[in-house]
Fold:
Amino acid sequence: MSKQYSSVSMSSREQLPTLKITNGHCTAEIALFGAHLLSFVPNADATERLWLSETAVFNKSKPIRGGIPICWPWFADIYPDKDASDNTKLPAHGFVRTQDWQVIEIAESTDATTITLSPNQLGLYGFSEKLLASVEFTFSKKCSIRLITKNTSKQALTITAALHSYFNVTNIHQTKIIGVAGKYIDKTNASAAFEQLLPYLISSETDRIHLQDENNHFDFIHLICPDKKISIEQHGHDSVVIWNPWQKKSKTMADMQDNSYIDMLCIEASITQGTILAAQQQHELVQIIG
Structure:
């Protein structure tokens, strides 16, 4: 970052370079590894919105646990436009969360700081080099994350993707999810379909895909926590994924403490059914956090 900015400075987390944002509305931090948002704290209540594992790894040997990982051009193990005859072991959640990104633009005003990043490598694992990705962070009273995909090829291409956001909920036993209802696919139960009971509470390992339907769009979600309320606005998604590993699985994860599931919950703006981009078409997956 050659130019000096009033609200953005270079910093680091162990071995990873980061951008620190401090303006009149908030503080935040982005790791250039994965374009990974690590922290967002609005000045209005000085309360961290994102959860970051105390044992997260910051040496590029694995993805960062917590914050907002960017899953692209596929989510989980859903590999669109992939040659079925290629049995190469593919990484979960795509290939951009485990590579360095570069700063494309920084814009500052009295109202907001906007930072645009793009990955250093595209066209991996059989995906077209003409399928482009960038992410635009806007930091103000709220934090907006826009994952922008552009198909610059001459043929249609398909992606799945997610903003895999980890939220700091203080106590999962006392957290209520507002704005998510209807049927869901339960990944902990052989992908069986169930109807969500209300109020939406988490009481065990949870890995659910809620698909949009005519009654449930998941555009506006609220987390009601013991000491705060987190607002989540989403666009460009076809589903929302709710995830908490609970204690048994947390104990098997080296980058999570045994009881850290208590103060985290993932609410993921997701494309799980696939979005087809025509030639020269652009798509935006957006999450706005307040």
Q: What stands out?
A: The mean pLDDT is 94. The two ends are 28 Å apart (CA to CA). Residues 106 and 115 are 5 Å apart (CA to CA).
